Amino acid sequence: MKIKTRFAPSPTGYLHVGGARTALYSWLFARHFRGRFVLRIEDTDLDRSTQPAVDAIIDSMNWLNLDWDEGPYFQTKRFVRYNAVIDDMLSNGTAYRCYCSKKRLETLRKEQIARDEKPRYDGRCRDSHAYHVDDKSCVVRFRNPQNGSVMFNDLIRGPIKFSNQELDDLIIRRIDGSPTYNFCVVIDDFDMAITHVIRGEDHISNTPRQINILKALGAPVPAYAHVSTILGDDGKKLSKRHGAVGIMQYRDEGFLPEALLNYLVRLGWSHGDQEIFNIDEMKQLFSLEAVNKSASAFNNKKLLWLNHYYINHLPASYVATHLAWHIKQQGIDTRTGPKLAVLVKLLGERCKTLKEIAISCRYFYEDFSEFDSNVSKKYLCQAAAPALETVHANLASLTEWTPAAVHTAIKQTTEALQVSIDKIGMPLRVAITGVSQSPALDITAYAIGKSRCLARIIQALDYIACRARGNTDQA
Ligand code: GLU
After folding, report:
1. Which PANTHER family does the entry link to (predicted)?
2. By CB neighbour count within 10 A (0-12 exposed, 13-18 middle, 19+ buried), where does 335 fall?
3. Alpha carbons 212 and 183: distance in angstroms, whole number
4. What digits encode the pLDDT tens for the residues 336-382?
């Protein structure tokens, strides 16, 4: 059997972590078996579906590199097909027209609730034409079996059984002629030859209805797997409050897709105690049997930990391709300064996100005329001037500009002045970077370049001189 899965988001909001994890599991399952993966946009809810949401879904799938073999299909483009099937069902009796008014259904509902019964359609039009008004004022209902039960073996949860008595006759076409959601899903899964439906657990109650319709159509019933919910770290439903944001916001915050995918795959699936999975390992090892039935809690710290890991373990040249976007956001012109792959190596160790790297790298590329005021007050003071003058001279006399040569020049300065590295290190760092935190001084100075470093040390000395004259406003 050729495995075929699908991801079928409704474009009523941005793709969030729950949806992305469902997409990932569906995609991995297809890739594991060298099957096919379909992207289908379930946009039948015309009031709530939006184009920006469709765009965000596609952008997110692209950014996560979850490629699809077919689609994107749009349900709104398939209404003719759905209606043709409904007409067939009306002809063969697996569906029927229902003329019950909204008012009648509302009264029925209230009565059932008052009797402590589960509200359901009572089947008045099922076998009777007595209430026929005209074809324009009817809905079409599926003739659900009245006896027996529907059973399916959920590939994550095991056997699940629903009694047909719990399921009433579902409306499959509204009064305005539009097919309803559950029906479209069934026809799509059938037409697209989906073999495995992997989706959120909020759809479990739709499954028996969908199976009944498939059976009435004589269609094969796919296997189902319902993935559990993702909760916040406080055990409550994941919401904006927990940072449950759209996937593209993770890109904006400086996450690598590899980190998010690794995080999501582990959120509800495990393979021994392994934490790090590259995409090939995921494809090779993923199985639905190892997906957890219980809800998982989203943990931002772990995601950050993974992001830091991937920034430092993926090839720097690759990480640089993602970093470039953030550098652009910061408006930094990187033509004169270290290459982005070098920057990844310089700052990767101390930054957990690409955004942090982009925010803290400016001094490698741009000169500055102001120092971080807190650190300049502390480190660019009169006492630091001799150290800066000497280190300037020693650096200026270097014939080659390498980290090792810079290191030696700094060391010679400490020896010449008989002071510890603390007395020179911080003033020099603040002088050449403007801030108090940077990678090791020798590689930082090397990456900034000789002429820039020397000019910045002079700028710092001028600042100290100004301060000494009682004017701390300018550097
Ligand atoms: N469109 C549904 C959703 O976004 C998914 C339906 C399905 O996978 O069957 O929740």
Report:
1. GLUTAMATE--TRNA LIGASE (PTHR43311), GLUTAMATE--TRNA LIGASE, MITOCHONDRIAL-RELATED (PTHR43311:SF2)
2. exposed
3. 11
4. 999 999 999 999 999 999 999 999 999 999 999 999 888 999 999 99
Residues 206, 136 contacting (CB under 8 angstroms): no
d(CA 187, CA 196): 14
Q: Which of 10, 37, 187 to mutate to test the pocket of ligand 1 (most atoms within 8 A of CB)?
A: 10
Ligand 1 binding pocket mutation candidate from 185, 190, 211 (most atoms within 8 A of CB) = 185
Q: Ligand 1 centroid to 10 CA: how many Å?
A: 6
Instruction: Sort strands 95-98 and 70-74 into parallel, antiparallel or unpaired.
Output: unpaired
Structure tokens at 211: 């199976």
**CA–CA dist 226, 199 (Å, integer):** 5
For CA atoms 13, 14, 17, 19, give the dihedral sign: positive
Which residues of the chain carry a pLDDT beneath 70?
240, 243-244, 471-475
Among the atoms of ligand 1, which is closest to the Cα of residue 6? 8
Q: Is 462 annotated as a binding residue?
A: no
Question: What is the structure's pLDDT at 471?
Answer: 58
Q: Is 64 exposed, middle or buried (0-12, 13-18, 19+ CB in 10 A)?
A: buried
User: Which is the closest atom of ligand 1 to the Cα of 185?
Assistant: 9
* Residues in the ligand 1 pocket, defined by CB under 6 Å: 8-10, 42, 185, 199-200, 203
pLDDT at 243: 63
> What atom of ligand 1 comes closest to residue 9's alpha carbon?
4
Give the Å distance between the CA of 199 and the centre of ligand 1.
Answer: 7
pLDDT tens digits for range 145-159 = 999 999 999 999 999
Taking all residues of the chain, what is their mean pLDDT, rounded to a whole number? Answer: 95
Residue 125 labelled as part of a binding site: yes
Given this model, what pLDDT does residue 474 score?
Answer: 47
Taking the C-alpha atoms of residue 189 and residue 220, their distance in angstroms, rounded to an integer, is: 10
Whether pTM exceeds 0.85 = yes
Q: Reduced to 3 states, what is the DSSP secondary structure of residue 41?
A: strand
pLDDT on residue 214: 98
Distance 256 CA to ligand 1 centre (A): 26
Token representation of residue 435 = 């801030």
Residue with tokens 């969908």: 210
User: For residue 269, what is the DSSP state?
Assistant: B
Residue 98 annotated as part of some ligand binding site: yes
Atom of ligand 1 nearest to the CA of 42: 1
122 marked ligand binding residue:
no
